[in-house]
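fyi for ur records
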Amino acid sequence: MRSRLLLLGAAAILCPAAAGAQPTPAESRLIAAFTTICLEHMGDAAAQRVTAAAAPWTFVTDGAPLDNGLVPYRSGSTRLGIGEALQACTLTGEMEPTVTLASFLSALTAAVGTDEGQPLDANSRYWLIAGNRDEEQVLSLKVSNETGRNLATLWVQRRAPASQRSH
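which gave:
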């Protein structure tokens, strides 16, 4: 796990978690599932599916593939999307009411070594993670209670090497 996540250090200055901050059970569970399913098997949708179906995660398919190519899975109230063609993986889970973007960032930093990231909006951050052969992965986080439920979403997607992207 740590070897794959050390790639985060190539693109970011590491920041320590806030002193004394303890992640909530929901934060810990979502970060652990995201790390194990999505990050450790980045770019390998078959391995992501096998890992997601196994204990302790026990995700099951939850309908037809979405318009964006993600295949939906569910385990309790947690949703997973795996996109083979997109080389993407996303997890959304309900958080305790006290969880904020700042508290989740602190838990994510402690678990995988992220920094504060770049803002997408008031509820979101993203990171560009250097990979092999000029590849990058885009990792994003959103924490919001816009729907009346406090949800956190983690997303990672592999981007093509810069030489292959249209400018």
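Residues 2-159 form one domain. thats all i got for now
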